[in-house]
Protein 1
Amino acid sequence: MHSEPRLTAYIIRRLMQSAAVVLAMSVIVFLGLNVIGDPVYLLIDPQADQAEIERTIRRLGLDQPIYIQYFNFITNALTGNLGTSFVHGTSALKLIVDRMPATLEIAIAATLMSIVFGIPLGLYAGLKPDNFFSKSIMATSILGFSLPTFWVGIMMIMVFAVMLGWLPSTGRGPTATFLGITSSLFTIDGLRHIAMPALNLALLKISLVIRLTRAGTREAIHQDYIKFARAKGISSSRIVGVHLLKNIMIPVVTVLGLEFGNLVAFSVVTETIFAWPGMGKLLIDSIQSLDRPVIVAYLIIIVLLFVIINLVVDILYSVLDPRVRIGEKSA
Amino acid sequence: MTFSKSVLAAVVAAGLALAAAPSAIAKDLRMALSAEPSAMDPHFHNLTPNNALTSHVYERLVHFDEKQTPIPGLATSWKTIDENTWEFKLRTGVKWHDGSPFTADDVIFSMERAPNVENSPGSFALYVRGKTFSKVDDHTVRVTTKEPYPLMPNDMATIAIISKKAATGAKTDDFNSGKAAIGTGPFKFSEFVKGDRYVVVRNDDYWGGKPKWAKVTIRPIKTGPARVAALLAGDVDVIEEVPTTDIARLQGDAKVSLGQGLSNRVIFFHMDQWRDESPFITANDGSKIKNPLKDVRVRKALSKAINRPAIVDRLMEKAAVPASQFLADGFFGVSKKLKPEAFDPDGAKKLLAEAGFPNGFKLTLHSPNGRYINDARMAEAVAQMFTRIGVETKVETMPPAVFFNRASAGAGGNPEFSFILVGWGAGTGEVSSPLKSLVATFDKVKGMGTANRGRYSNPELDKVIDQALATVDDAKRGELLAKASEVAIEDVGVIVSHYQLNTWATRKGLSYTPRTDEYTIATSVSEQ
Amino acid sequence: MSVTDVGTVPTPAARPAAQTPFQRFVADFTESRLATIAFILLIVTMVLALIAPWIVPQNPYDLAQVDIMDSRLKPGTPAASGKYTHWLGTDGAGRDLVSAMLYGLRISLAVGVMSGVIAMALGAAIGLIAAYAGGRTESIIMRIVDLQLSFPAILVALMLIAILGKGVDKIIIALVTVQWAYYARTVRGSALVESRKEYVEAARCLGLSNARILFRHILPNCLPPLIVVVTVQTAHAISLEATLSFLGVGLPQTEPSLGLLISNGFQYMLSGEYWISFFPGLVLLMTIVVINLVGDQLRDVLNPRLSK
């Protein structure tokens, strides 16, 4: 085990690197979006005369040279103000934070789904690799990450909402508050609404978990401790349920942890199709309307989210597996 | 709840969910929009979805009926006192949602606030500037201008009247939270969850009679097919902007009824007529040529090359009407003489040859992608038609925000493109709006030709427009506007293509009265 | 095709077998019937895409040949000219779907392969340099790689396209940007392993130049894992391009890729004119599946840990 100061130093170094990333990224996005332009001509009443256009440009602070705009942005950002949305006129940070629960709940639901479906199927495919059903699982899992998400999404709406009428087609259901958390996961109607988009988002991850579990199972099954347990006459369900699963879970959980950020990012597509009021849809809308403050704020928040997830995963990993030494060659 | 229990609960719930059928509660209405309103503050942004949403809660002095004819709103009557003064008589006995009475003070307050909203990306200043509002008594307001101003009632149909008591010092966020969202309209504010849902409930004390719907929930569903799916699945009762591709199918569906009507929007093309060499026009070998669009024969040829009936039939699935001018028949100020240009590829080729381009030239057509109904596909279809008469046309589409920026002020503050597809919705519901903005000579100081992205200029036309804008007499102004339209169209200042039809779909048992202004509002939904 | 390159890799220690390495590789690969079929299908797909301009009845990118009057024709309708039949119907702009799909396949594959190859070249070079240079250079390079990998590809691509604008070249730039890091990491990993092996020591002792050792000796031995990454990343790239097109930031309207054909056809999903997006969807799906199947088998065959 490593000593405390070393861990602290490691965390500080990671945080400083992240700050550098955030800074670099904000410059790139800021300048990049500035080159493409601003949404004034899209947003303003087309009958507006030049005077009114100029007044609006001033009101949005777009009359300043770009380096002054950036300087203002940075000084404000240091006080926690990430700017005001051009389109919505309210704080970009608040816009995103307001929509974050919707995105997080869909990402959490998708992660749960990938565990619930992925691990049993992967275990089965790993234990009986030559079985027909196992082969079908593997073939289908290839479909899982070959199908474009948007295509599956609209197909699901067609089948489950329009043709069968089982589930609501789009949108987020009513929310309820449980243990201080307000989420649509706590109402029945909310669960009905989240089922399809979460599955849509989960498809890729289910395939991933199936493959990881299968690979892990196949590797572990030949290892001495399993052979030893078999020789000792421990029941096979106990071997699988306790010894095998425990060993497979570490890589699966690690990968799912790292992939959580990807789920949040990929929700851009799912949210667009299912009219899910989350951050992803806000990002797409903001990109289309060149709402720079919201785009920059979104990226900063996502980067922070990633940094935190990676850091937590790394630290957990080093705690779980003493062979990994943090700070030497961190991944 | 432990983890495993909550998973169990989720599984059970999912099972129940499969069994439960979606049920609509009577007298509640659920509507799906194609665009997302950005605020409950009626002065924040002059934008169709915002205006439509806020008109549930707020009212204007003058209302537009579904054909955009001005009718009494919070003002019961209006008249001109002298050339430069209008007087509005306010409705008596109207109460704000908080119970306080509506008076002239609220009107003056609203007119002062409208042009000065913090962070507004597109304010209503245009409709207030140059006007001085004064209170005569509690129920009379006078408006004075420097010059005669015939469009006063139309302008007054844009500004929502808000409560002085509730909204003094209020910011846009205070409206969104409901704190300042006190109106006089048929519905009261209930909930505003940005990007998710907007809920209003019935105002039982409404002066115009009790509204039919106890609660109206409005949701944005931007993707067309998803919107239709939501209606078919019974998740919403009304949807706007039915994708043209689905109209035929929905017409045959017994569970759905459609409401379709003409809009105030014309789809047309601006042509670069101010540069001697246009950046996106070259000879067939790629070399620079003199701007052919300055020649009226070339413009006319391009207009003749467009097969308008085919566009209406094949592309718009009949949800459009071939256009002859800026607004369809029935609007104020349209010309009775103009007819849509007939499809005539041979005539077009002949005109091109006469103008010195027997083998045509190369052109890039720029279009926004997702601003107007089927815009990108429309650009593609027209490029096909131009290519057939020898004008080899490339299409470049871009997101609307990028497009309008570059099309308006891309090249050193000037329009960047040579030939663009755009649309114009006449917010005022009459012809002076497109004439003044699209074909009048661009003039920063006078505020004319503000959206004239081809910089077409015709002094004769300018004279007629100026004259019309200063004529208060309706009949005389109508004639002048018609004449101006004729001049602009005959000189092919722009090429008009079609008027959009707006299509709403409702579940069976309801119907939607189509509106030319594209607003989706609960009061236009009726039970059959 | 890159697959055959594997056989020419000089193996450091010749194995005592009657088969050449290539023959063994082929034997291993064809052990899975599914993968073999997938490989054949992949070759067929690529050939079809290559020769598309000479076999399709219409050039769907030539606006003079496409007519809006022919839009949304049912599969099997004869063309207006009477010279051929729209076997799979036409799309919303009047393009013959068979022609449009093959041309779209060309673009999709070109985007996938081009971005894959460029990203590989770039990534491999950077990875090799990192592995060989070591020290500070390596840690800086690998830090950048880590950062790049920790960003979701779709977000980076979205941002880049939003900033760069539309076009095939821009899509490729965006895809290379999101992909190079995978190659860099893979190559560095295997190069580190290789550079500790005896043959490299031997080469050093012989006084061969660094560059020579790097490119002639180490790189070829890093190829197997690289090939696996290439196949997987190509499939990713094709799928990502389709998604970007769906989100409205992809390719030009008049020259649709498969992805753009699908997202254009998306509008017709509820209208009963299923063929407009169904067939392109099928072809896209098939292409990605066969690439993944081939990649999967390659991984199994080339993975020393699973070799028997």
Note: Chain A has twelve helices and two strands.
Protein 2
Amino acid sequence: MSIEVRGVSKRFGDFVALDDVNVSLPTGQLTALLGPSGGGKSTLLRIIAGLDSADSGTVTIEGTDATHLPPQRRNVGFVFQHYAVFKHMTVAKNVAFGLEIRKRPKAEIKKRVDELLDLVHLGQFAHRLPSQLSGGQRQRMALARALAVEPSVLLLDEPFGALDAKVRKELREWLRRLHDEVPVTTVFVTHDQEEALEVADEIVVVNQGRIEQVGTPDQLYDEPANDFVMGFLGETTTLEGRMVRPHEIELSPVRTAHELDGVVVRLLRVGFEVRLTVLVDRTGEEVQVVTTRAHARALGLDVGDVVHLSPASVLV
Amino acid sequence: MARTSTAVGRRNPALTWALRLVVIGYLLMLVAWPSAYVVRHTFADGFTSLATAFADPDVVHALLLTAQVAVAAVVINTVFGVGVALLLVRTRFPGQRALSALVDLPLSVSPVVVGLALVLVYNPRTGWFGPWLAEHGVDIIFSRPGMVMATCFVALPLVIREVVPVLEELGEDQEQAARSLGAGTRQTFLRITLPSIKWAVVYGVVLSLARSIGEFGAVKVVAGNISGQSVVATVLVQQKYQNFEQDTAYAVAFVLALVAVLCLVVVALLRPSEGER
């Protein structure tokens, strides 16, 4: 295990940010800390980096007790949501910073900076100032800067949070590929479940200062430990008091056993899918159902129609 | 049809011009005319009064003394000012608001009061620390340390008030990034923080310098005001004026005003270069 967090608690005044958190983050993997804003995931990351101190508990990085080490001696790379670029330095100087601090020979620094800038596709921007780069380029530079010192772990705090949707998608695919190329233990914080499911090897769901569940994306999606995890990792609706995913409810025009009758009260076409709100006769619930455009057309669905619902697979 | 865009409810031009005239007239009567008068008086007989003034060893000594005291005070205030600004912005401690308010005290207290307070504490016969310091051979009052202290006091907030907002706007991200990349406190300050606040520091230094050179009340109270020994330029102007050496008084006043204007020019030249960054 690369990072071991044991019994870590942190309060800000009356607010409990972390409450006795225990988690192990494996070496060489890409782990996401996923949870809602204010849930404590950023605080946990900052405590691992040494940028915040825990009230109690210990942090071990690569077998070394790092609890009382200052950030500069933990050998972690940290990437901030708002890039934290050194504004008065060129791109190359930014990337070289950690190596210059370590007093490496000039030739070695130059070689390493060139390699890293090529890795993040910023080779031709080496002599520009960060203010001349776009948000996505700045964040790639920040990543190269963090990787330059060959950290034992790379920590990213909402790395794509300040970017627009398209760049965000590109960058997270790029991060995944980069991690496959340079397999340094990486932990990133996100509140975007899609981002976590798409990029991470392992996801740690953090909520209200506690760890809700740890697992692979598939485990979390298919076997959520509780309603919170299920609700956070995708859309849900209730059918007969049970939580189900809207696309896992089957619709049929003909009634068979164990089915519920309902009336379509709202119908919304969004891209390739059709979202229905069905009012169930027997329970009076409004159930959300998602189906494909083709299926909806085949059934000839419209508002006011009577449909029959059955859960494809019942979870929880 | 192309039109110049204007805000809704634009004032009528006559009123705009009237307001402009009021402002210009006000500045003219209060600042420009009196300053111009000093210049006119200085050069009434060409360079004679300047030459006479600089031939007087007391004048040369007073100007040198002012320069020495001002430079010493500015150096002390710059180091202290940057330190206090970091303390106020980057740390949290009990009594922080009180300290922040205390920093502004020199702006509101009359310099004469400052001088008297220093005399009360440090005078060698009845002051709190004075007798003890005098026994150990340190003279504060009626000597240079006292003059530097008085000047430091009045110029205290200028560097701090320039640096604090810049530090606040800068945020801690860059410093934290430097720390995570292995930089210690000193390296982080020298490589990251200082380059980011350098223009604010320069601006604060220039303002402090102008303020220190012009200081009169506080320095007059703590200095012995012995001709050729402990008379600074501002006090000299007053003494010469009262001794009916008005030409010399105007000449020295002109030199002081010139330095102040140069300070402002330096600031004006620095500001746009900061905007370009």
Note: The longest strand of chain A covers residues 15-25.
Protein 3
Amino acid sequence: MMALLAAVPTLTPPTGSDIVGLLPEVILGGAFVILLLLDLITPASRRTWLAAFSVVAIVAAFGTTVWGWFDAYNNPHVHGVFFGAFAYDRFGLFINGVLLTSALLVVVISPQYLNRRGLHYGEYYSLILAATTGMMLLAGAASLMVIFLSVELLSISLYILSGFSRTDERSQEAALKYLLLGGFASAFLLYGMALVYGETGHTQLEQIAIAIHSGIATVDPLLLIGVVLMLVGFAFKVSAAPFHMWTPDVYQGAPTSVTAFMSVATKVAAFAALIRVFSFAFPDLYPQWQTAVVFVCILSMVWGNLAALSQTSLKRMLAYSGIAQAGYILIGVASSPHDAGGTIGALFYLAAYSLTNLGAFAVITIMSGRGEDLDRYASIRGLAHRRPYVAAAMALFMLSLAGFPPTAGFFGKFLVFSAAIKSGLMPLALWGIATSAVSIFYYLRVVLLMYAKPDADAKSYEWSKTTVSGGAVVAFTTAGTLVFGVFVTLLYTVATAAQQGALPRL
Amino acid sequence: MILSADPFLLAPDAFPPLLGLSALLFSIGVAGVLVRRNPLVVFMSIELMLNAVNLAFISFGRFLNSEEGQIFAFMVIVVAAAEVVVGLALITQIFRIGRRLDVDDLNEMKL
């Protein structure tokens, strides 16, 4: 008991170093409020300025994240900042970097798409910034309270964003489904938190870890139910089966640029929180939660890949593929307490997946028609003959998602599978390899369709011209997918440093 | 630690019934979400679940003699209000574009 009390940081007012630990989030949150006001004085025809302002804010936050990467290493805050409520560590900053890159790419690609769909309102950028702030807070959250609040900040922003097309029935339907199921899942997450708090007496991850480690909190059914309920809440957010029911409908109904953002960023942020809570705060409960994670993991891989086979819409196919990818990342989580490579692999996979998947959605975004998304398989038939570069980039993204070398996706899969084998989870690795073999069918189907001859009598689709911004985003994601696939050590070194710096450490 | 001089501190035997009540409310909420078809009622069931959580937090906080449970309950109340704002706006909008309010009718997107 004395050890527990000694570890409680003394209560003092937040100091400058506390604020420094939260600087990227503060910048982005501030920009979100300023953007709301700027929207009032910006004429409707000049809304691209708001996008430019968001880009400036995101770049500034990214700059402070990079600076913090070195500062967190040189001046470590082993108990976190703000009395241990927030972890200022390389793990959170790595995730911040991935999130900010995704947000930047989405903001760059949005104005053209929103104009074409007639949805160009200023609130869009505020909501993207609010959601990104929530995700960054979630990545660094080291207290159950901060985890809950940041989950809700990002979710509520995304509920509104997925219903952003106010007159489109599908968009409204997507938003309501997301909201109802999201609220349902939040309640499970919260009940889990309440039970964990009740059993350990603390809401801060470090204190919870100490309480479990030192045996103050006995491992009894109530605590285990709490842990499992928290897993359910997180599994919903990362869209892992069997908590994935919302994913295909929401991804399909939401405007494509929003889908691009939430398919990538939500998954990255929620996985960051999942890894921090389970691998770093509950390592002593590993034997208990491992079974549940393995179950969710296998189910996601099987269900996601099988359901993706029969899809005829690109957005829906990518939604099911996202469920399967969540399964692969969970392999890394399941093997993390045995082998540090599990967490490193999961981080590598998250970065690689976010670049690749964002690229794939960027292609759908820049090809969208006037007032509608051209996401049917039929509408991409023969794309390679009209837009050879875009089709080549899309083919590369599909190969990376399927896990072909030399793309980033291959090494993501390689790292999590090898971590599973090293930590004695051989069956999990075999399930992963078998289901990725299935996934090749539906990924290559898209490639084959794009390179097929267009039907002579089919009506020609009005693919919009690829603009500079759209081309830049596709070029950037293509380059990232290739660079991280060829120069693997670049990303691997950074992910290793992130894993080593992660808090809480017992 | 639990045996403080606070006269309002929950006696240990008053605690299991409170937790049981919270679990019961939570289960009623889950059943409501799964069974009811009107999005408004589904929404109310989610609120019931959140309030069950609040009850659990507050009784745990009182039992452990720590303030964190009560603070957490306040956070939950605030967030639930924010969620209601967005939810009601969405339901109104769906009603306006001419849909019957039934979650089974929200099936524009199917395989």
Note: The mean pLDDT of chain A is 91.
